[in-house]
Amino acid sequence: MKHNVILITIDSLRADRLGCLGYHRETTPNLDKLASKGYLFLEAISVGSNTRVSFPALFASLYPFILLHLPDKGYMHLPREWLTVTEILHNHGYNTLAVNSNPLLTYYREYGRGFDICDDPLYEREKGGFFGQMQSSIHSFTKKIAGKPALPYPSPDAISKKALAFLDGIKAPFFLWVNHMSIHIPYFPPKKFVEEITGGQIPHSRIKRLNKKIMSKQPGVSKQDISDIVDLYDAEVRNVDHCIGDFIEQLDGIGISNKNTYFIITSDHGDELMEHGGLAHADAKLYEELIRVPLIIVGPNLKATRIERQVSTLHLTPAILGLNDIAKPDYYMGYSSALLVQDEAVESDEYVISESCEKSKSPDEPQATDMQMSCRSHQWKYIYNEKQGEELYDLQSDPQEKSNIAEKEPNRVRALKKKIIAHQAFEEDTARKIMEIRRIKRKLSNVRMK
Q1: What is the Cα–Cα distance from 244 to 68, expressed in whole angstroms?
Q2: What is the rounded distance in angstroms from the CA atom of residue 321 to the CA atom of residue 311?
Q3: Is residue 120 part of a domain?
């Protein structure tokens, strides 16, 4: 039997901000309730530390640095040789829908492939032409007059309303992707959630100044600044959680629940809150606050289970297919059993590779700078940075990654570096295979034309 799938991705949500994962504040009561009904992964690790490098894994079970070896439009564009999860589900009879608020994940960069209906912010903006731009300008001006922030992304409430509208009259089975951006900087949470989190308010003028510091990387961030930024971040988390709770309740009212639908909640990456000298996720780093993400899977025949072993987000797409008995393509780099089979004897991620880089002048340029890779086990994390060298952390005794012990553990560093080198060779080989497929297709095309 085919079941519906609803994938909710929450940009910039750190794992350690969920109550069910140990946070002391009541930021996520609705996600906590959902997690109590299915699989809660305690150690889910993203393939990348920003949207550009993390989403190829989430949609196509693909390591991002492979894209750097392709002479394409840029390192953010999914190769057409690689079917997305949406295309595969569509080919198996699913109605496919998306409410996406991130202009980096659009048709232009191949993320819209396979969707019957896709709310694409970049496409809508271009389609609107002069009148669309005028409407956007008027909206920003009226917000400014009212003393409200003109946010660059739709509110989570607006996202949920659009998703519900898309589902009106839709036939099962369906795949719905909902992408929330409100936790992403700038942080302008609704006042009621600031009050819920802090018991008071932060003046709007101060919120604007704090966001300016974050966005422009201004020096001189004080302890009070950090405290207030954390409060704003947590209030944004509470805001999204509240709207997801309402969304799930309204879905239940129209007969869509975990009895006939798989709900998958995750994030592409987290945000740094000065743990390693920075804010948000503008810098290429691979620390826990950036790559450890929430992962919750709830649905038919899934019992409440806390999964303690480490897993990579590379396995999410194969798992979505596996939930409905659809075989994954052989070239997918993850495997469904990593998330769906709870036998400890099953093949699992003893080591997880994550990747990051600084964006080039344009995201559509193929090159990137400040490339970093990490190799993480349950206990150890090795980070190789082409600019700053090597780092090694014992995550059990030093979970905050404050003490680099690379010089004290040369043998362990050598062993983990070998895994990084092997992984780099694998990525280069995969890129060569993609290019060979393209060469053969061009040759066949030329023969047909003749």
Answers
A1: 35
A2: 17
A3: yes
With both helix axes pointing from N to C terminus, report the angle between 191-198 and 223-253 in degrees, rounded to the nearest 10. Answer: 110
Write out the residue range of the structural domain in which residue 118 sits: 4-347
> Number of helices and strands (H, E) in the chain?
12, 17
Q: What is the DSSP letter of 378?
A: S
Dist CA 426 CA 423 (whole Å): 5
* Model pLDDT, residue 71: 76
DSSP 104: T
Residue closest to 388 by CA, chosen among 401, 406, 415, 366: 406
248 assigned to some structural domain = yes
Residue 422 lies in a domain: no
Place of tokens 């405290």: 227
Residues 450 and 444: their CA atoms lie apart, in Å, by 10
Q: What is the pLDDT of residues 158-199, one digit of tens each?
A: 999 999 999 999 999 999 999 999 999 999 999 999 999 999
What digits encode the pLDDT tens for the residues 384-419? 987 778 999 999 999 999 999 999 999 999 999 999
Confidence category of residue 76, pLDDT binned at 50, 70, 90: low
Write out the two tokens for 182. Answer: 């409100």
- Measured from the Cβ of residue 323, the count of other Cβ atoms closer than 10 Å reads 21
Reply yes or no: is the peptide bond before residue 156 cis, omega within 30 of 0. Answer: no
How many domains are there within the chain?
1
Which residues are paired to 383 by β-bridges?
A: 374, 391
Smallest CA-to-CA distance from 214 within 184, 179, 181 is with: 184
For residue 228, what is the domain's CATH number?
3.40.720.10
- Domain membership of residue 291 (yes or no) is yes
